[in-house]
Specification:
Layout lengths: L6 H9 L5 E2 L3 E2 H5 L3 H5 L10 E6 L3 H12 L5 E6 L4 H4 L11 H14 L4 E6 L9 H10 L4 E5 L14 H8 L7 E4 L5 H11 L3 E3 L10 H11 L8 H18 L4 H4 L2 H7 L7 H7 L5 H14 L4
Parallel strand pairs: 1-3, 2-3, 3-4, 4-5, 5-6, 6-7, 7-8
Helix pairs in contact: 1-11, 4-6, 7-8, 9-10, 11-15
Protein backbone atom coordinates (compact mmCIF):
# COMPACT_ATOMS: atom_id res chain seq x y z
CA UNK A 1 0.00 0.00 0.00
CA UNK A 2 1.88 2.98 -1.32
CA UNK A 3 2.33 5.80 1.21
CA UNK A 4 0.74 3.60 3.88
CA UNK A 5 3.07 0.74 4.79
CA UNK A 6 6.03 3.00 5.47
CA UNK A 7 8.47 2.51 8.34
CA UNK A 8 6.30 4.29 10.90
CA UNK A 9 3.16 2.29 10.11
CA UNK A 10 5.07 -0.98 9.94
CA UNK A 11 6.47 -0.19 13.40
CA UNK A 12 2.92 0.07 14.73
CA UNK A 13 1.69 -3.08 12.95
CA UNK A 14 4.62 -5.12 14.27
CA UNK A 15 3.99 -3.75 17.75
CA UNK A 16 0.50 -5.25 17.53
CA UNK A 17 1.60 -8.63 16.25
CA UNK A 18 1.62 -8.56 12.43
CA UNK A 19 3.17 -11.91 11.51
CA UNK A 20 4.73 -10.71 8.25
CA UNK A 21 4.91 -7.35 6.53
CA UNK A 22 5.77 -5.88 3.14
CA UNK A 23 7.25 -2.54 2.24
CA UNK A 24 5.39 0.00 0.16
CA UNK A 25 5.69 -1.12 -3.43
CA UNK A 26 8.85 0.10 -5.11
CA UNK A 27 9.00 1.17 -8.75
CA UNK A 28 11.56 -0.89 -10.63
CA UNK A 29 12.17 2.05 -12.99
CA UNK A 30 12.76 4.39 -10.07
CA UNK A 31 15.03 1.94 -8.29
CA UNK A 32 17.36 1.30 -11.21
CA UNK A 33 17.62 5.08 -11.78
CA UNK A 34 18.49 5.46 -8.07
CA UNK A 35 15.53 7.79 -7.54
CA UNK A 36 15.63 8.92 -3.94
CA UNK A 37 12.03 8.03 -3.10
CA UNK A 38 12.40 4.51 -4.46
CA UNK A 39 15.75 3.84 -2.76
CA UNK A 40 14.38 5.12 0.57
CA UNK A 41 11.67 2.47 0.49
CA UNK A 42 14.33 -0.26 0.72
CA UNK A 43 15.18 0.69 4.29
CA UNK A 44 14.16 -2.04 6.70
CA UNK A 45 15.03 -2.95 10.31
CA UNK A 46 15.64 -6.30 11.95
CA UNK A 47 12.65 -5.88 14.28
CA UNK A 48 10.38 -5.92 11.21
CA UNK A 49 11.32 -9.43 10.14
CA UNK A 50 10.06 -11.39 8.38
CA UNK A 51 9.59 -8.70 5.75
CA UNK A 52 9.39 -8.59 1.98
CA UNK A 53 10.42 -5.81 -0.38
CA UNK A 54 7.64 -5.40 -2.92
CA UNK A 55 8.47 -4.45 -6.52
CA UNK A 56 6.35 -3.44 -9.48
CA UNK A 57 7.06 -2.64 -13.10
CA UNK A 58 6.23 -3.63 -16.67
CA UNK A 59 9.70 -4.23 -18.16
CA UNK A 60 11.31 -7.61 -17.55
CA UNK A 61 14.92 -6.43 -17.57
CA UNK A 62 14.19 -3.51 -15.26
CA UNK A 63 12.35 -5.77 -12.81
CA UNK A 64 15.22 -8.27 -12.77
CA UNK A 65 17.76 -5.53 -12.09
CA UNK A 66 15.52 -4.01 -9.42
CA UNK A 67 15.19 -7.40 -7.73
CA UNK A 68 18.97 -7.70 -7.54
CA UNK A 69 19.21 -4.22 -6.02
CA UNK A 70 16.43 -4.97 -3.53
CA UNK A 71 18.20 -8.16 -2.48
CA UNK A 72 21.15 -6.05 -1.31
CA UNK A 73 18.87 -4.54 1.36
CA UNK A 74 18.60 -8.05 2.87
CA UNK A 75 14.83 -8.56 3.11
CA UNK A 76 13.48 -12.03 3.80
CA UNK A 77 11.68 -12.27 0.45
CA UNK A 78 11.36 -10.42 -2.83
CA UNK A 79 7.68 -9.86 -3.60
CA UNK A 80 6.35 -9.08 -7.06
CA UNK A 81 3.23 -6.94 -7.17
CA UNK A 82 0.92 -8.19 -9.92
CA UNK A 83 -2.10 -6.96 -7.97
CA UNK A 84 -2.23 -3.15 -7.87
CA UNK A 85 -5.40 -2.08 -9.74
CA UNK A 86 -4.77 1.65 -9.93
CA UNK A 87 -5.19 3.02 -13.44
CA UNK A 88 -1.80 4.75 -13.67
CA UNK A 89 -0.10 1.44 -12.78
CA UNK A 90 -2.30 -1.16 -14.47
CA UNK A 91 -2.72 0.70 -17.75
CA UNK A 92 1.06 0.70 -18.19
CA UNK A 93 1.04 -3.07 -17.91
CA UNK A 94 2.40 -3.16 -14.36
CA UNK A 95 0.62 -4.37 -11.21
CA UNK A 96 -2.60 -6.14 -12.12
CA UNK A 97 -2.13 -4.91 -15.70
CA UNK A 98 0.14 -7.92 -16.08
CA UNK A 99 -2.98 -10.13 -15.90
CA UNK A 100 -3.57 -9.18 -19.55
CA UNK A 101 -0.24 -10.72 -20.55
CA UNK A 102 0.18 -13.91 -18.57
CA UNK A 103 3.13 -15.22 -20.63
CA UNK A 104 5.04 -12.02 -19.85
CA UNK A 105 4.04 -12.27 -16.17
CA UNK A 106 5.36 -15.80 -15.99
CA UNK A 107 8.58 -14.98 -17.86
CA UNK A 108 9.25 -11.97 -15.66
CA UNK A 109 8.74 -14.10 -12.57
CA UNK A 110 10.96 -16.88 -13.92
CA UNK A 111 13.81 -14.48 -14.59
CA UNK A 112 13.54 -12.82 -11.19
CA UNK A 113 13.55 -16.21 -9.44
CA UNK A 114 16.75 -17.09 -11.32
CA UNK A 115 18.37 -13.73 -10.62
CA UNK A 116 18.13 -13.69 -6.81
CA UNK A 117 18.96 -16.09 -4.02
CA UNK A 118 16.06 -15.05 -1.79
CA UNK A 119 12.59 -16.62 -1.99
CA UNK A 120 10.31 -14.86 -4.46
CA UNK A 121 6.60 -14.40 -3.72
CA UNK A 122 3.78 -12.90 -5.79
CA UNK A 123 0.64 -10.90 -5.05
CA UNK A 124 -2.04 -10.89 -7.73
CA UNK A 125 -5.79 -10.91 -8.42
CA UNK A 126 -8.43 -13.26 -9.83
CA UNK A 127 -7.96 -11.89 -13.34
CA UNK A 128 -8.30 -8.74 -15.40
CA UNK A 129 -12.10 -8.72 -15.54
CA UNK A 130 -15.17 -10.92 -15.05
CA UNK A 131 -14.57 -12.74 -18.35
CA UNK A 132 -10.92 -13.58 -17.62
CA UNK A 133 -10.73 -15.03 -14.13
CA UNK A 134 -7.71 -17.18 -14.85
CA UNK A 135 -6.10 -17.35 -11.43
CA UNK A 136 -6.18 -21.17 -11.19
CA UNK A 137 -4.03 -21.50 -14.31
CA UNK A 138 -1.87 -18.50 -13.38
CA UNK A 139 -1.18 -19.92 -9.94
CA UNK A 140 0.07 -23.20 -11.41
CA UNK A 141 2.33 -21.43 -13.89
CA UNK A 142 3.80 -19.14 -11.24
CA UNK A 143 4.50 -22.10 -8.98
CA UNK A 144 6.13 -23.93 -11.88
CA UNK A 145 8.70 -21.15 -12.35
CA UNK A 146 9.66 -21.11 -8.69
CA UNK A 147 7.40 -18.81 -6.70
CA UNK A 148 7.53 -19.77 -3.01
CA UNK A 149 4.15 -18.33 -1.95
CA UNK A 150 1.19 -16.68 -3.63
CA UNK A 151 -1.15 -14.03 -2.23
CA UNK A 152 -4.45 -13.63 -4.08
CA UNK A 153 -6.85 -10.70 -3.79
CA UNK A 154 -10.43 -11.85 -4.35
CA UNK A 155 -11.33 -9.25 -6.97
CA UNK A 156 -10.48 -8.64 -10.61
CA UNK A 157 -8.57 -5.59 -11.72
CA UNK A 158 -11.74 -4.13 -13.21
CA UNK A 159 -13.44 -4.23 -9.82
CA UNK A 160 -10.62 -2.28 -8.19
CA UNK A 161 -12.03 -2.35 -4.61
CA UNK A 162 -15.73 -2.32 -5.43
CA UNK A 163 -18.21 -4.95 -4.28
CA UNK A 164 -17.30 -7.87 -2.07
CA UNK A 165 -14.16 -9.93 -2.48
CA UNK A 166 -14.90 -13.38 -3.94
CA UNK A 167 -12.84 -16.02 -2.17
CA UNK A 168 -14.29 -18.94 -4.15
CA UNK A 169 -11.43 -19.08 -6.64
CA UNK A 170 -8.88 -18.53 -3.88
CA UNK A 171 -10.25 -21.69 -2.30
CA UNK A 172 -10.10 -23.47 -5.65
CA UNK A 173 -6.43 -22.60 -6.00
CA UNK A 174 -5.75 -23.85 -2.49
CA UNK A 175 -7.60 -27.13 -3.13
CA UNK A 176 -5.83 -27.73 -6.44
CA UNK A 177 -3.76 -30.91 -5.87
CA UNK A 178 -1.01 -29.48 -8.05
CA UNK A 179 -0.44 -26.58 -5.67
CA UNK A 180 2.08 -27.12 -2.88
CA UNK A 181 3.17 -23.55 -2.08
CA UNK A 182 1.41 -21.50 0.64
CA UNK A 183 -1.70 -19.66 -0.56
CA UNK A 184 -2.55 -16.41 1.20
CA UNK A 185 -6.03 -14.95 0.85
CA UNK A 186 -6.68 -11.23 0.69
CA UNK A 187 -9.76 -9.05 0.45
CA UNK A 188 -12.26 -7.72 2.99
CA UNK A 189 -10.53 -9.09 6.08
CA UNK A 190 -12.01 -6.46 8.37
CA UNK A 191 -12.53 -8.42 11.58
CA UNK A 192 -11.22 -11.38 13.55
CA UNK A 193 -14.40 -13.32 12.75
CA UNK A 194 -13.91 -12.80 9.03
CA UNK A 195 -10.31 -13.97 9.23
CA UNK A 196 -11.33 -17.19 11.00
CA UNK A 197 -14.15 -17.78 8.54
CA UNK A 198 -11.73 -17.58 5.60
CA UNK A 199 -9.30 -19.97 7.25
CA UNK A 200 -12.08 -22.43 8.04
CA UNK A 201 -14.00 -22.19 4.77
CA UNK A 202 -11.17 -22.05 2.24
CA UNK A 203 -8.23 -23.67 4.03
CA UNK A 204 -5.79 -20.91 3.13
CA UNK A 205 -2.36 -20.86 4.73
CA UNK A 206 -2.62 -17.22 5.70
CA UNK A 207 -4.77 -14.12 5.40
CA UNK A 208 -3.52 -10.70 4.39
CA UNK A 209 -4.95 -7.53 5.91
CA UNK A 210 -4.76 -4.36 3.85
CA UNK A 211 -7.11 -1.39 4.00
CA UNK A 212 -8.69 -2.51 7.29
CA UNK A 213 -5.43 -1.73 9.06
CA UNK A 214 -5.60 2.01 8.27
CA UNK A 215 -5.65 3.72 11.65
CA UNK A 216 -6.24 0.34 13.25
CA UNK A 217 -2.90 -1.46 13.62
CA UNK A 218 -4.31 -3.37 16.59
CA UNK A 219 -6.37 -5.50 14.18
CA UNK A 220 -3.45 -7.95 14.07
CA UNK A 221 -3.61 -8.40 17.84
CA UNK A 222 -7.37 -8.88 17.60
CA UNK A 223 -7.12 -11.55 14.91
CA UNK A 224 -4.35 -13.50 16.63
CA UNK A 225 -6.18 -13.48 19.96
CA UNK A 226 -9.44 -14.61 18.37
CA UNK A 227 -7.78 -17.42 16.42
CA UNK A 228 -6.06 -18.62 19.60
CA UNK A 229 -8.93 -18.27 22.06
CA UNK A 230 -12.20 -17.63 20.22
CA UNK A 231 -12.59 -14.46 22.28
CA UNK A 232 -13.02 -10.96 20.90
CA UNK A 233 -10.86 -8.25 22.44
CA UNK A 234 -12.53 -4.93 23.29
CA UNK A 235 -11.66 -2.00 21.06
CA UNK A 236 -8.99 0.29 22.51
CA UNK A 237 -10.39 3.15 24.54
CA UNK A 238 -10.00 6.65 23.15
CA UNK A 239 -7.07 7.48 25.42
CA UNK A 240 -5.24 4.36 24.26
CA UNK A 241 -5.93 5.28 20.64
CA UNK A 242 -4.56 8.75 21.31
CA UNK A 243 -1.36 7.23 22.72
CA UNK A 244 -1.09 4.95 19.68
CA UNK A 245 -1.66 7.85 17.26
CA UNK A 246 0.97 9.96 19.05
CA UNK A 247 3.55 7.17 18.84
CA UNK A 248 2.73 6.59 15.19
CA UNK A 249 3.08 10.29 14.41
CA UNK A 250 6.37 10.51 16.34
CA UNK A 251 7.74 7.63 14.28
CA UNK A 252 6.61 9.34 11.09
CA UNK A 253 8.47 12.50 12.09
CA UNK A 254 11.53 10.41 12.93
CA UNK A 255 11.70 8.64 9.58
CA UNK A 256 10.48 11.22 7.06
CA UNK A 257 11.71 14.60 5.97
CA UNK A 258 9.53 17.66 5.39
CA UNK A 259 5.76 17.75 5.30
CA UNK A 260 5.29 14.17 4.03
CA UNK A 261 5.52 12.98 7.65
CA UNK A 262 2.38 15.04 8.31
CA UNK A 263 0.47 14.59 5.08
CA UNK A 264 0.72 10.80 5.05
CA UNK A 265 -0.55 10.57 8.64
CA UNK A 266 -3.86 12.25 7.84
CA UNK A 267 -5.62 9.13 6.56
CA UNK A 268 -4.61 7.37 9.78
CA UNK A 269 -5.82 10.17 12.04
CA UNK A 270 -9.27 9.96 10.43
CA UNK A 271 -9.41 6.22 11.01
CA UNK A 272 -7.99 6.23 14.55
CA UNK A 273 -10.96 8.26 15.74
CA UNK A 274 -13.69 7.20 13.35
CA UNK A 275 -17.22 7.24 14.78
CA UNK A 276 -16.50 9.62 17.64
CA UNK A 277 -19.57 11.84 18.16
CA UNK A 278 -19.32 15.54 17.26
CA UNK A 279 -15.82 15.00 15.95
CA UNK A 280 -16.09 16.78 12.59
CA UNK A 281 -14.50 20.08 13.64
CA UNK A 282 -11.59 18.42 15.43
CA UNK A 283 -11.06 16.00 12.55
CA UNK A 284 -10.85 18.92 10.14
CA UNK A 285 -8.19 20.54 12.31
CA UNK A 286 -6.21 17.28 12.49
CA UNK A 287 -6.15 16.87 8.73
CA UNK A 288 -5.23 20.48 7.96
CA UNK A 289 -2.72 21.34 10.70
CA UNK A 290 0.89 21.43 9.53
CA UNK A 291 2.76 22.15 12.74
CA UNK A 292 3.77 18.99 14.65
CA UNK A 293 3.28 20.56 18.08
CA UNK A 294 -0.20 21.71 17.11
CA UNK A 295 -1.03 18.18 15.99
CA UNK A 296 0.25 16.67 19.25
CA UNK A 297 -1.84 19.23 21.15
CA UNK A 298 -4.93 18.32 19.12
CA UNK A 299 -4.37 14.64 19.89
CA UNK A 300 -4.11 15.46 23.60
CA UNK A 301 -7.37 17.38 23.32
CA UNK A 302 -9.04 14.32 21.77
CA UNK A 303 -8.01 12.28 24.80
CA UNK A 304 -9.35 14.90 27.20
CA UNK A 305 -12.60 15.58 25.33
CA UNK A 306 -13.57 12.04 24.35
CA UNK A 307 -11.53 10.09 26.89
CA UNK A 308 -14.52 8.26 28.30
CA UNK A 309 -15.87 7.14 24.90
Amino acid sequence: MDEVTDLSFRFMCKRFGAAMMYTEFVSSDGLIRSAGASVAKLRIYDYERPIGIQLYGHLVDAMVEAARLAEQAHPDVIDINFGCPMKKIANRGAGSGMMRDVPKMVEMTRQIVRAVRLPVTVKTRLGWDESSKNIVEVAERLQDVGVQALAIHGRTRSQVYKGEADWTLIGEVKRNPRMVIPIIGNGDIKSPEKAKEMFDRYGVDGVMVGRASYGRPWIFREISHYLDTGELLPQPAVRERVAIAKLHFAKSLEHKQGKSSIYEMRRHFCSYFKCLPDFKETRLKLVTAEDPQEIFALLSYVGERWGEE
